[in-house]
Amino acid sequence: MRFSRAKILLSFGILLGLFACEQDQKFGDEPNLQWREASIRYLGDSADNRRVIDLTVYFTDGDGDIGREGSSNSDTCDLDNYSRFLERYDLFIYYFERVAGQYREIPPTDSCLPFHNILPNLTPEGQNKTLEGDITTPFDYANYPVNNTDSIRFELMLVDRAGHQSKRIIGEAIAIN
User: Fold this and answer.
1) pTM score, two decimals?
2) Is the backbone of residue 36 left (phi > 0), alpha (psi -120 to 50) or beta?
């Protein structure tokens, strides 16, 4: 049995099209996070103890709706409607200190200045909206630790514009000198 050149090219084209469609569906619409690393860096001279911890996570999102479109909501803190105030954030960061052998969440010193971040609109142009990559965000460590602790850790969660949430991931312990 002989295949014509046109049939072979058509078959190849169909397989290529199926493969391309499969690649577009590589990730689900729910964002996914994986811990990469945390690194401490000093701002200026290490003697003045101004530290920042750079938190890096790998993320994926199948529909690419990560980050805010246009400007974010107002900068005012609405404690009467705190959940609405939190809607403007995309990357949620939770800080923990090890106290008496167990990790305990430490809230920010000012509830109107949470640890969370607002990400810029990361949606790619074009037909394929799939996103994947690393996000590195600084955590200002100047006023911490609060307790007498030997280690800290972070938990992070990513929320897209449709309200899909990643699973909350736990970072590795960071030894504190």
Assistant:
1) 0.78
2) alpha
Give residue-wise pLDDT tens across range 107-117.
Answer: 998 877 889 99
Collapsed DSSP state (helix, strand, coil) of residue 64:
coil
Q: What is the rounded distance in angstroms from the CA atom of residue 160 to the CA atom of residue 64?
A: 8
Q: How far apart are CA 64 and CA 24, in angstroms?
A: 11
**Given CA atoms 58, 155, 142, 109 in this order, what sign does their dihedral have?**
positive
d(CA 101, CA 109): 23
Peptide bond into 107 cis (omega under 30): no
Q: What is the DSSP letter of 16?
A: H
As given in the structure block, the two tokens for residue 69 are 């479109």
**Model confidence pLDDT, tens digit, residues 114-135:** 899 999 998 888 888 899 999 9
Q: Beta partners for 27?
A: none
Which of 177 and 29 is assigned the larger pLDDT?
A: 29
CA distance 55 to 115: 12
Q: In what order do the strands lie in the sheet with 131-140?
A: 32-42, 51-61, 131-140
Q: Indicate the class that CATH gives domain 27-175.
A: mainly beta
Name residues whose C-beta falls within 8 Å of residue 154's C-beta, 6 or more positions apart in sequence.
Answer: 38, 53, 55, 93, 94, 95, 96, 139, 170, 171
Domain limits, the chain: 27-175
pLDDT of residue 156: 97
